[in-house]
Write a structure and sequence with these properties.
- With about 350 residues, the protein is mostly helical.
- Helix content is about 75%, strand content about 0%.
- It contains 14 helices and no strands.
- The chain is globular and about 85 Å long.
Length: about 350
């Protein structure tokens, strides 16, 4: 069981762990072991994913040498070009050579344009990262506010309304929400552009105008999931004895909520955030198409239509690395937030 899963299923008693607090050395050791485990598992996943990515490209029926040389190429020309591409070597040799260069930042060169893959990815990746970060911020803020409000009004109209709206929004695909946002804000209200992109470094104001709609479209599903999970966790935490004791001692309600209850209830919601990151990356494929964004997904689709294997492998490898690094960050945050996440699967403190 990963740290994310452990935190998602564990109880929420981080503020009541005096035994652990009395043993700082043991806690440090467990934290170190958890950090090693959190990093080691994604490394293994990355190696397996890289092998599959390269294997699918190598085992495909595409003949890049013939595609580059055209219909007039002779078998001798194709064999010569395969030698130039390094495709006449054994598969294992090709894979380790490609992986070794990739780990140093060299993702190869496009068969058709001659442009280094790293350069193409470096130009497209900021588009997806900026949209994904903004979408995640929207999801956390909107979902957090809705979840807290619903939990504080448990059983009331607001609680039922938030639950109903979140249940409905969770079933709507991001591309439908994206089209609806274009119709409302671009066609009728004419306040936001329907497509295009301006780099953040060029003009932050224009970047925000172009990024708002795709980020909102991608954030709705995550916001609904965070709100529902946070509402459920907060309702359980608010009924704990330590909350009753804190209220009886006269602590302000805001301090009880944000100082103790929210911290204990945040771990499952943080787990949801970790699970939403791959969805945001995957949803960017549709968002880029709808909002005409020059991101990694468009780059990969263009490479796929041309059978540009190095570009396909490079975009997939970078996307996998982004998702795994994000999951490592979430798992480390969970380890910091909840002592249960530091335990090995099935282990005891």
């Amino acid at each position: 069981m990963s740290a994310v899963q452990a935190a998602g299923t564990a109880g929420l008693e981080s503020v009541r762990a005096p035994a652990v607090a009395r043993r700082p050395l043991g806690r440090t050791v467990r934290t170190g072991r958890s950090a090693v485990r959190i990093v080691a598992v994604p490394v293994v996943v990355f190696l397996l994913a890289s092998f599959l990515t390269y294997g699918l490209g190598a085992l495909g029926h595409a003949n890049p040498a013939a595609a580059v040389l055209g219909d007039l190429a002779t078998p001798a020309d194709i064999a010569r070009m395969n030698h130039v591409f390094g495709l006449d070597r054994p598969f294992v040799v090709q894979y380790f050579s490609w992986l070794g260069h990739a780990l140093t930042g060299d993702l190869g060169t496009s068969y058709f344009t001659g442009i280094p893959v790293a350069t193409s990815v470096r130009q497209a990746l900021p588009v997806d990262l900026s949209i994904a970060v903004l979408a995640l911020a929207f999801a956390v803020v909107l979902g957090g506010v809705a979840g807290i409000a619903a939990a504080l009004r448990q059983g009331g109209r607001l609680d039922r309304a938030v639950t109903l709206v979140c249940s409905g929004l969770a079933t709507v695909p991001p591309f439908v929400i994206g089209i609806a946002l274009i119709i409302v804000f671009s066609v009728f209200l004419k306040v936001l552009p329907s497509g295009g992109y301006v780099p953040l470094a060029t003009d932050p104001g224009q970047w925000l105008r172009f990024a708002l709609l795709p980020a909102l479209a991608l954030s709705v599903e995550g916001a609904a999931a965070i709100a529902r999970q946070l509402r459920t966790s907060l309702v359980g935490a608010l009924n704990e004895n330590y909350v009753t004791g804190a209220v009886a001692r006269g602590l302000p309600a805001r301090r009880v909520l944000f100082g103790h209850v929210l911290r204990n209830a945040a771990a499952p919601a943080l787990t949801v955030i970790g699970l939403e990151i791959p969805s945001l990356i995957g949803g960017a494929v549709v968002a880029e198409k709808i909002f005409n964004l020059p991101g990694v997904a468009q780059l990969a689709l263009q490479a796929g239509s041309q059978h540009d294997i190095p570009l396909i492998e490079g975009t997939l490898l970078v996307t996998i690395a982004v998702v795994l690094v994000s999951n490592i960050a979430v798992n480390l945050a969970l380890t910091r937030l909840t002592p249960q996440a530091r335990r090995p699967a099935g282990g005891a403190i």
